[in-house]
Design a protein that fits this description.
The protein is α+β, with helices and mostly antiparallel strands. It has helices at 17-45, 51-62, 75-98, and strands spanning 116-119, 124-128, 131-134, 137-140, 154-157.
Length: 161
């Protein structure tokens, strides 16, 4: 039996934090755009667009000049955003069937209030000690406890700390 654990570490503040804030802002823009596409598709066809189709569409959009700044966020982070959106819609559809706990459909979010993005396999690397490389830039974090096991994903969150 495998045990999954989540560890939370705080990054030291630095001048490079603006790049992380930009990436989180772009992730919020991608969320809003994907949600708008989903709503428009449903309005036109009365069907739900699958997550893989949405991923393909967003991947094409990232290669255009108009949406080139979406390249700040890695491709796997974009896929994670689409997976979050798909899970939110699945919870909404399940609540419609169950007649129990009511959950509303996913909503647009203010970009400055969007909180995080997740890097799965690429885009990060532990450098040893209390240093980590995120999307080509080195950061230090507070090593409050040793990192146990193998790290599978890294989620960068924006909060008060």
């Amino acid at each position: 039996m495998k045990i999954r654990r989540t560890y939370k570490y705080r990054l030291y503040t630095s001048k490079r934090d603006k790049h992380l804030h930009q990436q989180i802002d772009v992730a919020g823009i991608i969320w809003n755009h994907a949600l708008a596409l989903q709503k428009r598709y449903y309005r036109l066809t009365s069907k739900y667009m699958g997550r893989f189709r949405l991923m393909r569409h967003l991947a094409k959009m990232r290669r255009t000049a108009r949406f080139g700044y979406w390249q700040l966020v890695g491709s796997q982070a974009v896929q994670e955003i689409v997976e979050r959106l798909d899970k939110a819609y699945q919870r909404f559809f399940a609540s419609l069937k169950d007649k129990g706990i009511k959950t509303g459909p996913p909503r647009l979010k203010k970009v400055k209030k969007y909180k995080s993005f997740t890097l799965k396999q690429a885009g990060w690397k532990l450098l040893g000690g209390n240093r980590i490389r995120l999307t080509g830039r080195n950061y230090k974090f507070v090593l409050s406890r040793p990192v146990g096991g193998t790290v599978k994903t890294v989620t960068v969150k924006r909060d008060q700390a």
